Amino acid sequence: MLLVVGVYVVAGGIANNAGRAAKTLAKGSVPAAYQDLVQKWGNLCPAINPALLAAQLYQESGFNPRAQSHADAQGIAQFIPGTWATHGIDGDHDGDRDVWDPKDAIPSAASYDCELASYVKKVGGNLTENMLAAYNAGSYAVIQYGGVPPYEETRKYVKTITTLEKSFAAPVTRVDPSEQAAGAIAYAQKKLGTPYLWGGEGTPEQGGRFDCSGLTQAAYKSVGIDLPRVANDQYNAGPHPARDELLPGDLVFFSDDLTNPRAIRHVGIYVGGGYMIDAPRTGAVIRFDPIDTPDYFGATRVTEDGAKALPTTV
């Protein structure tokens, strides 16, 4: 679904939402270059929040400001050119409206969400879910059915974004442990000593060898959870516990750029005591390694719904 925007003018705008409790983004969940923009504009109206806006941007482009789809949707929020020409806004007040500039595109994405919310605000039920349904199926369908319409695609879209939202929001309480964590660890333990293979997914043709994200993907697949193939997408498969809240089974991530989740380059499975099982590099074997290194980025507590919500490509 392409993100198309319309201008939304709400009385008081951002200022009138200042007194409303604002959800904050989880540390490292959004590239630092966009953190302030998403946090600010994600509080434009009561129907949205920064984590929800981040989830939409991630699904649309993976935070890539140069993304372009086969349908010619453009930029970090994937605007159709004709719609942008009519409805794009000058978010940074620099005198132009540039679809490739996140300082314009992110505010425009938020304004469109709020415009939809204004159309369906009198419909019963959850305003945010109705807004997302209006984005997918049109506001008239939401009004007609008195809430999220009974369309499979629309209901899936609403669930996808609201589930992804949880991986971008800072946890307010300790996040629940995964029921599948022990099984994922057991799988990884059986692979200790296996030689690393770049691109390895453990197939017979590859001699049962793995790279880092191939191992974590296979470990969770063994317990019925399908993760994306690469580490930086696996990071969004659930909420993010702090270092002192880690539990066995959490995925732990590493990067040379600690401000950008899209730059994550390595992942392992935490086993407790400051150690993980990982497939480290060419020439090494699957082994136990310490996690407390300068390139430690953060962790994810994998959930089944979180994994299902991840886009197949970003």
Structure explained in plain terms:
By secondary structure, the protein is α+β, with helices and mostly antiparallel strands. The chain contains eleven helices and five strands, in the order ααααααααααβββββα. It has helices spanning 32-41, 50-61, 81-87, 102-119, 127-137, 139-145, 152-168, 181-190, 212-221, 231-234, 304-309; strands spanning 251-254, 266-272, 275-278, 287-290, 296-300. Strands 4-3-2-1-5 form a five-stranded antiparallel beta sheet. A hairpin with an 8-residue loop joins β3 and β4. The longest helix has 18 residues, at 102-119. It is elongated. The two termini are 13 Å apart. Mean pLDDT is 91; it is low at 1-21.
What kind of oligomer do you see?
single chain
- The total count of helices amounts to 11
Unreliable sequence segments: 1-21
Q: What level of helicity do the residues show? A: 25-40%
The succession of helices and strands, N to C, reads HHHHHHHHHHEEEEEH
Give the biggest beta sheet: 5 strands, antiparallel
| Radius of gyration from CA coordinates | 21 Å
| Quantity of strands, as a count | 5
Structural class by helix and strand composition: alpha+beta
Overall spatial form: elongated
**Proportion of beta-strand residues:** 5-15%
End-to-end CA span? 13 Å
Instruction: Walk across the major sheet and give the strand order.
Output: 4-3-2-1-5
The pLDDT mean sits at 91
Task: Summarize this structure as a short list of keywords or feature phrases.
five-stranded antiparallel β-sheet; 11 helices; disordered N terminus; alpha+beta; elongated; about 325 residues
